Amino acid sequence: MGRVMIFVWLSIAAVVVVLGFIRLAPSDPLDWNTQPEFSEDRTFRGGVFRVMRTGESGLERFHAVAANAPRTRVLAGSVEDQMITYVTRTRFIGFPDYTTARQDGDLLKVYARLRFGRSDLGSNNDRISGWIAQMEGAAQ
Question: 112 vs 3, 11, 48, 97, 120, CA distance in Å?
């Protein structure tokens, strides 16, 4: 019985350490405030690329939506820099997802991806689709 209790307590401690690391791991802006070159929409297991013709004010309108989203904060960048990276955390565990939006002429390029794991279960696609819908709705 004693060994079972030790195993249970060690397992609980391991879970707490892992969840603490996920919640408290630092996010280096130099690692995350970047975007690969892409020219078309793409969905992959851990995130999405989205390209939209928004005009010169696309990033400003996107920022107005993203900056007010729940559990989302700016990690790096600004509208003036023409690129902003946001961190959005899940409600309960606090898994971070990173979204980088960049104005490229008339195009707004959005790159959303997870940090931990292999699949985001579509959460980045859902979030970005919602933000884009809000952004386009506010423009009308």
Answer: 45, 33, 5, 7, 10
**Rama region for 77: left / alpha / beta (φ>0; ψ in -120 to 50; rest):** left
Instruction: Give the Cα separation of 39 and 57 in Å (integer).
Output: 19
Taken in order 64, 65, 66, 69, the sign of the CA dihedral is positive
CATH architecture of the domain with residue range 29-139 = 2-Layer Sandwich (3.30)
State the Cα–Cα distance between residues 51 and 110, nearest whole angstrom: 6
Instruction: Give per-residue pLDDT as tens, 88-111.
Output: 998 878 889 999 999 999 999 999
Residue spans per domain, the chain: 29-139
Least Cα distance to 54 among 35, 34, 82, 88 occurs for 82
* pLDDT tens digit sequence for 22-79: 777 888 888 889 899 898 999 998 899 999 999 999 999 999 999 999 999 999 999 9
Q: Rounded to two decimals, what is the model's pTM?
A: 0.86
Three-state DSSP state, 95:
coil
What residue type is assigned to position 64 of the chain? A
